[in-house]
Structures are given as structure tokens and as C-alpha cells.
Q: What sequence folds into this?
């Protein structure tokens, strides 16, 4: 995948907004807006207001306004042809990658979208090799995802050390990590900023999947019955965190490898 510069985006191999490119980004709408919501509120009988129900997000519409300018007839034609090819209708969802300062934690991120509408006037500006193209994209999944996976590692105290893992979770949506445990023995993983912990009464290698709420051994055995009472599935909200890991392993340290993809909405 192409490395993006500030104020550029890429879809289906087409990079938009690069300096000296014939395709400029005039506006992007929909990335900072919340998607429409589905509500389950119920009418109160003979009372003011509603019973509050659960809210769920619909998909997200993203509109790109592209300004195409060609210094030659050939450059103008080539730029328009590239837009037609990249934003072909009735296609599968693909990542719209972007790097806009201040958006998505100032990181390269993407939304999975497909073209739903494309408009461009054939007017006097077009005759002078200038054209504004509006492309409407739709994402059935409203989240924007970090382009790179977050990968961190923490070891239990061993040989007199007492390490802490300090990190800042950049996503606006809480991270639900997959945690691989190496040489675990009755471990306890604690987020010292919130006081929440996750404990496991088990010896060996295991994987904690917070999103799926499952713990499995290296052989695939379900270990959910080994979870310590009072545990909370690891979940890291936006901001600073400090993790500690304790283990009863005696031959070497227990290592917890955490991985997730940042999300924004």
C-alpha cells in the first residue's frame, strides 16, 4: 500500500491530494460526523418523555469532492479515467485510507467503503480542463480503523524487576485486545489506572480474546472456567494506562503480548 502524506487519501490504488497531482481534494464530508443512529426508545403511557432504549449506529456516508485539473489534454483525460476506474459502481467494499492532521489520532486510518454515487458537471470549466467530481461512498461498518496494528508486550516481575507497561490508547472507541500469554501460571493482569483486573488460574500458554470474551489454551481448549472471580475482560478506553502483570511462574518470566487495532467513530 502507498505511504500517505498529510492531506491525502487513497482508494483502490488511486492517491488523491498529492502535491502537483492532477487530482486535488477539495473537501471530505462524513469522516468527522456521527453516523445515523437506530434507537429503541419506547413511548411512556400517560407520562412525559420516553423509556430510553439501546442506541445502535447505522452505516457511514463519506463524500469526496475532487478537483481535477490538467495542464494538458492528455493529463486531464488520464486523471478522469483514473477516477472512473477507481470508483467503479457495484463493487465490493475496499479501504479508503487517509491521513488528515487531527483526524483519527493524527494517524493513517481507513474506513471500508464502496461507491454509491458519482457526479461531475460537463460545463464551461470542463472545456478548460477543470472539473469538480463528487463521489459518494458508503461504509456498512461505521468505524474508522488504524492502518497499523498496536502491538505491546509486558513481562511479569522476575529476578528482582517490577516492570510496568505504560501506554496511551489513541482510539476514541475502547480497545479490546487479543493477549497471548507465554509461560503463564495463575496470572493477574491489572490496569492500575482503573483498578480493573483479569485473572486466570492456569499454567501454560493461553490466549485471551477480549472482543470474543474467550480464553483458549495453546491446544484450543476453552479456559473460561479458569477465569478468576471478579475479573473484567481487558478493555482500554481513550487515554493513558499503566498495566502490571503478576505470575507464579518460577522458571522464567510470564510474557503477555497485547495486540489490537485502534478505532474511531
A:
Amino acid at each position: 500500500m502507498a505511504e500517505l502524506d498529510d492531506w491525502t487519501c487513497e482508494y483502490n490504488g488511486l492517491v488523491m491530494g498529492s502535491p502537483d497531482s492532477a487530482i486535488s481534494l477539495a473537501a471530505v464530508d462524513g469522516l468527522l460526523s456521527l453516523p445515523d443512529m437506530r434507537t429503541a426508545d419506547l413511548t411512556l403511557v400517560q407520562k412525559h418523555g420516553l423509556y430510553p432504549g439501546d442506541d445502535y449506529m447505522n452505516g457511514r456516508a463519506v463524500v469526496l469532492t475532487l478537483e481535477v485539473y490538467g495542464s494538458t489534454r492528455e493529463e486531464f483525460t488520464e486523471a478522469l479515467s483514473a477516477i472512473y476506474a477507481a470508483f467503479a459502481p457495484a463493487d465490493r467494499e475496499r479501504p479508503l485510507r487517509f491521513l488528515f492532521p487531527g483526524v483519527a489520532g493524527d494517524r493513517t486510518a481507513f474506513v471500508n467503503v464502496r461507491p454509491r454515487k458519482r457526479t461531475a458537471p460537463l460545463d464551461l470549466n470542463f472545456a478548460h480542463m477543470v472539473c469538480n467530481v463528487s463521489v459518494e461512498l458508503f461504509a456498512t461498518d461505521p468505524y474508522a480503523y488504524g492502518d497499523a496494528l498496536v502491538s505491546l508486550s509486558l513481562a511479569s516481575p522476575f529476578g528482582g524487576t517490577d516492570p510496568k507497561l505504560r501506554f496511551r490508547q489513541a482510539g476514541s472507541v475502547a480497545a479490546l485486545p487479543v493477549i497471548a500469554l507465554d509461560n503463564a501460571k495463575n496470572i493477574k493482569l491489572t490496569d492500575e489506572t482503573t483498578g480493573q483486573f483479569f485473572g486466570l488460574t492456569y499454567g501454560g500458554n493461553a490466549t485471551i480474546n477480549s472482543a470474543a470474551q474467550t480464553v483458549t489454551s495453546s491446544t484450543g481448549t476453552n479456559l473460561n472456567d479458569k477465569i478468576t472471580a471478579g475479573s473484567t475482560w481487558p478493555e482500554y478506553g481513550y487515554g493513558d494506562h499503566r498495566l502490571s502483570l503478576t505470575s507464579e511462574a518460577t522458571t522464567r518470566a510470564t510474557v503477555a503480548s497485547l495486540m489490537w487495532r485502534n478505532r474511531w467513530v
Q: What stands out?
A: The two ends are 23 Å apart (CA to CA). The longest helix spans residues 73-86.
